[in-house]
Amino acid sequence: MSDKHLPSAQHPPPVPEVGTILIDRQGRIGEFRAVEYGSWWLRPVAGGLEWTVEPGSAEPVSPEQRLHTKVAVVNEQTKRRGQLGA
């Protein structure tokens, strides 16, 4: 996402729906959780510590990225279950 597409203070970005999978400028993929203290809160799709981004500095992932992320989460969960039973 280029800076020219960033919303101005006069035109704040639309707030994503909770659960929307976004990618931030560092390439981190996370699920939108909330707006607090002027920041968007994201958390890893597989769980973990949340992080904040500037509103509008993360955008929805492509359908391919969404599928890849969900498959990776299921694979990790399956791997963990296998380790617990070992």
Number of domains: 1
Cross-sheet strand order for the largest sheet: 4-3-2-1-5
Counting H and I runs of at least 4 residues, what is the number of helices? 1
**CATH fold-level label:** SH3 type barrels
Helical content stands at 25-40%
Number of strands: 5
CATH class categorisation: Mainly Beta
**What is the CA–CA distance across the termini?**
44 Å
User: Globular, elongated, flat, extended or rod-shaped: what is the shape?
Assistant: elongated
Sketch the major β-sheet: 5 strands, antiparallel
Mean pLDDT, to the nearest integer, reads: 88
Helical/strand content category: alpha+beta
Strand content: 25-35%
Q: Gyration radius, to the nearest Å? A: 15 Å
Q: So, CATH architecture?
A: Roll
| Order of secondary-structure elements | EEEEEH
Low-confidence stretches: none
